[in-house]
């Protein structure tokens, strides 16, 4: 009898999306396939479904966000959920309340799913241990940003038809970037060859263990790449001097039409946003619809987050 009770408890416990490292390749592909269907829905005249009717989604964003927060909000509403986005600037946390206290308060409201972005690595994991509902990580510290990697993968598949066999360059502030980590895990999982390009001060010391090829020379790192993924400089996470100047950074690591010529002829560029134009990427290049996937990333982000909400909000 004790064994049966234990099995039931495991079966009924909520599943969480805490990071790409926690996903199997089958799970990742299932999310991407589901998201493809939502692309069609989001481009249609009638965008509303009732899949999550009666379910409650709480968005907890402890860090500023435009794209991620708005797309999770829109994704939940398009699936029919009751969505509550909490303004953490005016929350009890300002009065000294801990994340655990907040978790206990929210848990008493019986939500079905919590989406959390937090400045501390591991915060979503901690939250998932204190609530009875599903938790989706919308970015935690330097650790992971799983839905960003999934939407990037969907964007590449949508334009290139595949990821397996592609050569992908991730360029910029690798050291502080959760986007870089999640993309490295997922692109490797899906069969891509991944180059990472950064100055030595912004390259993790243990990067070789992640199954990528590191480069400090951007032109060499871009050689033959099909996708060039630029990253934002995470100035808010930098303590000390990592860069001599933004002008010098742009000269050596900013993406320009001249540097892009070292990649494949049909290379496409991506950026998770927000972009520091003239620092990480040339403005005209960022807006060039022939090579830039930036707007498509934003659009497909809603589809991916709809797929994640449907999968985990049960």
Describe the structure.
The protein has 314 residues and is an alpha/beta fold. The protein is 39% helix and 14% strand. The chain is built from twelve helices and nine strands. It has helices at 2-12, 25-42, 67-78, 99-107, 123-128, 146-160, 178-189, 218-222, 246-253, 257-260, 283-286, 294-312, and strands at residues 56-61, 82-87, 113-118, 134-140, 167-171, 193-197, 213-215, 227-230, 268-270. The strands form two sheets. Strands 7-6-5-8-9 form a five-stranded parallel sheet. α2 crosses α6 and α3 (67-78) packs across α12. It is globular, with a radius of gyration of 20 Å. The two termini are 27 Å apart.
Write the topology of this structure.
Elements (H helix, E strand, L loop, with lengths): L1 H11 L12 H18 L13 E6 L5 H12 L3 E6 L11 H9 L5 E6 L4 H6 L5 E7 L5 H15 L6 E5 L6 H12 L3 E5 L15 E3 L2 H5 L4 E4 L15 H8 L3 H4 L7 E3 L12 H4 L7 H19 L2
Parallel strand pairs: 1-2, 1-3, 3-4, 5-6, 5-8, 6-7, 8-9
